[in-house]
Specification:
Elements: E1 5-8, E2 13-17, H1 23-26, E3 43-47, E4 54-56, E5 61-67, E6 76-82, E7 87-95, E8 104-105, E9 110-114, E10 125-131, E11 148-149, E12 155-158
Parallel strand pairs: 1-12
Antiparallel strand pairs: 2-3, 3-10, 4-9, 5-6, 5-8, 6-7, 7-9, 7-10, 10-11
The structure holds zinc ion.
Length: 168
């Protein structure tokens, strides 16, 4: 398993739900997570202060999904694909944004604003990590979590300390 490096661009964010079999996910077989075997397929963050709700890209890449319509559990959401690392990261429950499919993104670029769209019980960011093939197709989708893997199994590097090299 090759290493994945995610830049920690989430300075103002604090974790409110970890990955996998969390207490919230277990609560009465939580409705949000039935499709994931009762597990949470990402990390949920809220804010330390309300001064900065900016959601920034944790790696470089290209936007492969830009869903601006708040009609699913994910709400307004983006998917960012990194062809060097063969990963994609997903950002759910955003406020509407100016990002479009095909946009090239540098690590640290602002993707949007943390919001409360979709299946959300308060302003927060659901952050998901996936391995992909070279065409940005998620692999291992039969892992019970539709391919989601735990971001905290990998290194987060503070982006102001990053030397700019790809982690591929
Ligand atoms: Zn979540």
């Amino acid at each position: 398993m090759n290493k994945i490096i995610l830049l920690n661009t989430l300075d103002n964010f604090k974790v409110i739900q970890l990955f996998g079999l969390t207490d919230f996910a277990k609560e009465n077989g939580h409705k949000y997570y039935r499709a994931y075997g009762g597990r949470h397929p990402g990390i949920d963050y809220t804010l330390k202060t309300y001064s900065d709700r900016l959601v920034r890209a944790v790696h470089s890449g290209v936007i492969v999904k830009d869903d601006d319509i708040d009609d699913s559990g994910a709400g307004i959401n983006l998917s960012l694909f990194c062809p060097e690392q063969l990963i994609a990261t997903k950002y759910f429950h955003l406020v509407n944004n100016n990002i479009n499919e095909g946009d090239r993104i540098a690590a640290g670029d602002v993707l949007g604003i943390m919001g409360n769209t979709g299946a959300s019980e308060g302003i927060h960011l659901h952050f998901g990590l996936y391995r992909t093939d070279s065409q940005a197709i998620i692999i291992n989708k039969d892992n019970g979590l539709k391919g989601a893997i735990n971001p905290f199994d990998f290194d987060f590097v503070y982006w102001h300390e990053w030397d700019g090299r790809s982690a591929a």
